TrEMBL record:
HAMAP family: Aminopeptidase_M18_2 (MF_00467). One of its GO terms (molecular function) is aminopeptidase activity. CDD domains: M18_DAP. Its cofactor is Zn(2+). The gene is apeB. InterPro entries: M18_aminopeptidase_2, Peptidase_M18, Peptidase_M18_dom2. Belongs to the peptidase M18 family. The keyword Cell membrane does not apply. It is an enzyme of class 3 (hydrolase). This is Probable M18 family aminopeptidase 2. Its EC number is 3.4.11.-. Keywords: Aminopeptidase, Hydrolase, Metal-binding, Metalloprotease, Protease, Zinc. It comes from Halopseudomonas sabulinigri. Zn(2+) binds at residues 83, 158, 403.
């Protein structure tokens, strides 16, 4: 697949995935179309040799795996991990605000979001809605308004002269989006959601909305930009880019190999949930794949996890924020992330293995170490490594503006990452 074709598919995937729920649904649908069988954690699993399966938890996390041939586990499992969530603005439980004749919704900041870019954007609303149906049963569906229905207007500089001097943004008072005039009719979010449910799901005509998990998102579609089309710009590149690369690589994996893709929710807030990397989801699945505890440890010790999460490219206007010997560049290949305090799980052996993977497919590779006088972010890598004891390498595509409402990657880097992960799933031996 060419870079152009791959990036268009990535753009389509991002557009279809405004929330972790939608990202998981998109991954699930693509896997089903590729012949994977959906499993239910509440049922017994009848797994067949050579089979391909997927399972979801909380509608926002997914694990997909293929069992490979008869000797699959003796060679270890090739695992790729990513996360489905991104920093955003989540709607509060009782959000309605009527101020100055305008109808607004109160929001809570999810994750470490860059807040300034959220102003003056055309926003829509999507997420999961739970309701009581006509028969009195509780059910849930995903909704997506798709069209721009909200905006967070900036205050004019004439009324805010210090705004360019680093004035802080108050998440409680400055961020509620404006959706409409609050004149007749009186507006109610749950009624609005019931109407949208019926519009998207005709079988929910009698739905009585009980609760919801909703996120605002930018409606501007992804785009390849730059004078020479060097850049790929989109929302939620962190970390849907890695989810897409992992999925694309898995769908091209050799049927003989034992391969697994895990995409979990809640990474941006620490991963401590039933469906996060610090929860039992992956362990539960591995226990069902390999019931014998001793054999499971043996298999895990033959396995390797590639934790794929975006890396910080060196910004030309802020180059001093990087260690001068570790400034990853856009379109220069995936980045190996290293931290001696185990904020990343890479060690010398796993880094060497990943470098060899890149060399085998002629993909450039870079490394990142945070400045010694700055704090370091983290990933699902150390969490998964500490829970499973699996060897791990933390890597990612270099990007600008991480955690902004719109992020920027090199247009060649999604292809580089996908190619290396594809080779990883197909490699004959692990370290």
């Amino acid at each position: 697949m060419s870079h152009t074709t791959l990036n268009q598919d990535l753009a389509d995937f991002i557009s279809q995935s405004p929330t972790p729920f939608h990202a998981t649904a998109s991954l699930r649908q693509r896997l089903l179309e590729a012949g994977y069988t959906a499993l239910d954690e509440r049922s017994d699993w009848q797994l067949e040799a050579g089979g391909k399966y997927l399972v979801t938890r909380n509608d926002s996390s997914l694990i997909a795996f293929q069992l490979g041939d008869a000797d699959n586990f003796e060679r270890g499992i090739r695992l790729v991990g990513a996360h489905t969530d991104s920093p955003c603005l989540r709607v509060k439980p009782q959000p309605e605000l009527n101020q100055q004749g305008l109808w607004q919704l109160g929001v809570e900041v999810y994750g470490g979001a860059l807040l300034a870019p959220w102003f003056d954007r055309d926003l829509s609303l999507a997420g999961r809605v739970s309701f009581r149906d006509g028969a009195g049963r509780i059910a849930s569906r995903l909704i997506d308004f798709k069209r721009p229905i909200a905006v967070i207007p900036n205050l004019a500089i004439h009324l805010n002269r210090g705004v360019n001097d680093g004035q802080p943004i108050n998440a409680q008072t400055d961020l509620p989006p404006v959706l409409a005039h609050s004149l007749d009719p009186v507006r109610d979010l749950r009624s609005l959601l019931a109407e949208q449910l019926q519009r998207e799901h005709p079988d929910c005509a009698e739905a009585s909305v009980l609760d919801y998990e909703l996120s605002f998102y930018d409606t501007q579609p992804p785009a390849t930009i730059g004078l020479d089309n060097d850049f790929f710009s989109a929302a939620r590149l962190d970390n849907l880019l890695s989810c897409h690369a992992g999925l694309s690589a898995l769908l091209d994996a050799s049927p003989e190999q034992a391969c697994l893709l895990v995409c979990t929710d809640h990474e941006e807030i620490g991963s401590s949930s039933c469906c996060g990397a610090d929860g039992p989801f992956l362990e539960d699945v591995l226990c069902r794949l390999i019931p014998d505890a001793t054999r499971r440890v043996q298999v895990i010790q033959r396995s390797l996890l590639v934790s794929a999460d975006n890396a910080h490219a060196v910004h030309p206007n802020y180059a001093a924020r990087h260690d001068e010997n570790h400034g990853p560049k856009l379109n220069a290949g995936p980045v190996i992330k290293i931290n001696s305090n185990q904020r990343y799980a890479t060690n010398s052996e796993t880094a060497a293995f990943f470098r060899q993977l890149c060399a085998a497919v002629k993909v450039p590779v870079q490394s990142f170490v945070v400045r010694s006088d700055m704090g370091c972010g983290s990933t699902i890598g150390p969490i998964t490594a500490s829970r499973l004891g699996v060897r791990t390498v933390d890597i990612g595509a270099p990007t600008f503006a991480m955690h902004s409402i719109r992020e920027l990657a090199g247009s060649r880097d999604p292809g580089y990452l996908t190619e290396v992960l594809r080779h990883f799933f197909n490699s004959a031996q692990l370290i």
